[in-house]
Amino acid sequence: MSPERASTSGPRWTVVQLIPRLSPGGAERSTMETARALVAAGHRSIVVSGGGRWVPRLKAEGSEHIQLPIGSKNLGAIWTVLRLRWLLQRLRPDLVHARSRLPAWLLKLALLGSGLRVAQVNTVHGLNSVSRYSRILTRADRVIAVSQTTRNYLLANYPGIDDSRLRIVPPGADPLEFPSGTQCTAEWIEALHFEFPALAGGLLMTLPGRGTRLKGHADALRLVARVRASGVDARLLLLGVVEESRRPYVRELQAMARELQISEFVAFSAPRGDVREVYAASALVLQLSTRPESFGRVVAEALCLGRPVLGYAHGGVGDLLRELYPAGCSPLGDLDALTERALQLLRDAPEVDTARVPKVSDSQALTLSVYSELIEGTAPHPAALARSS
Predict the structure, then answer these.
(1) 149 with 190, same domain?
(2) What's the number of domains the chain is made of?
(3) Domain identity same for 96 and 225
(4) Whole-angstrom Cα distance, residue 235 to residue 200?
(5) 318 and 365: one domain?
(6) What separation in angstroms does the CA of 316 have from each of 126, 310, 321?
(7) pTM assigned to the model
(8) Do residues 351 and 364 both lie within one domain?
(9) Same domain, residue pair 32 and 158
């Protein structure tokens, strides 16, 4: 069901989404996209969060925001439960959608004994630790998994889960934000090289990711050293690794680059607002997370632009690459295979079929179709139905 169809079929809905904060992040972006789709379809969209950078944007796009500390684990949580119960009694929503574990627990406690009857949806955005605390996300009328990997993870670790309630809704890339065939201007490239002289003169490989070992920065450094040793003039940008709280880690990576004798070919960057241009300028975008991720938004966005992606073939990243760009799949931790794949892609990368990349509009339509199942009793969207593991 598309957002346009929802505006003309059935009564107007009131939908509340619960998210700890509205700051940049994968779950937060999905919250914003769903809110936008609800507004476009003529429904009332409300987000309850602890605040964040995206609140003004959310309001400007037509949704309401109510600030509650639903991401705070402290003794004041009991007051948050009572305030959330009062809020739900006042709003009388048709559906409440919790997007992480603590909000899901607070919702459960707020509804306990309240007499309220409201449809509940939980989304599992990550491969959380297996525990009673995490199990709460499986306790809803519908449970959205963001990938086949996530669905399989839930079924394997929570044997009592009701399979019929599971739906797969992959996040998508926005082709307006990441249009296929984007070209960087000469002025932009000149500015990038002025800021990072190490990137000038060779083929750019980019690894996006915050400053944590799980993102595979060390493997990226080893990879560029091997590629250069094979005679290919490759340069590496570690995009987003520079953070105030991660300075010791960055120094460790810089020392590793010196040891590998590639310091003059590697740049370390803070998060940037011109990610689209960085991807477009890259001969190869890397996704080398050493721990399986629930989904690979970086993969989707880079492929949406038509850029080659090389990643470890596990988790949600592996799901996407196997389906959309198998030439970019490499076994986890196998640096020989990774180097061979990188050299192949840098020399002659297969073209990306951008039409097959999951789009934001697909994710929005699937999410609203899940809502419609519960609010209006419509049949599930075939694309969201869980497949056998």
Answers:
(1) no
(2) 2
(3) no
(4) 8
(5) no
(6) 10, 14, 9
(7) 0.87
(8) no
(9) yes
For 302-327, the DSSP string reads HHHHT--EEEESSHHHHHHHHHH-GG
Range of the domain at 313: 186-356
Same-domain pairing of 133 and 265: no
User: What string of pLDDT tens digits covers the 389 residues of the chain?
Assistant: 334 444 445 569 999 999 999 987 889 999 999 999 999 999 999 999 999 999 999 999 999 999 999 988 776 678 999 999 999 999 999 999 999 999 999 999 999 988 899 999 999 999 999 999 999 999 999 999 999 999 999 999 999 899 999 999 999 999 999 999 999 999 999 999 999 999 999 999 999 988 889 999 999 999 999 999 999 999 999 999 998 889 999 999 999 999 999 999 999 999 998 999 999 999 999 999 999 999 888 999 999 999 999 999 999 999 999 999 999 999 999 999 999 999 999 999 999 999 999 999 999 999 999 999 999 988 888 888 865 44
User: Are the C-beta atoms of 313 and 332 separated by less than 8 Å?
Assistant: yes
DSSP type of residue 231: T
Give domain status of residue 219, yes or no.
Answer: yes
The enclosing domain of 110 has a CATH number of: 3.40.50.2000
Rounded Cα–Cα distance for residues 105 and 108 (Å): 5
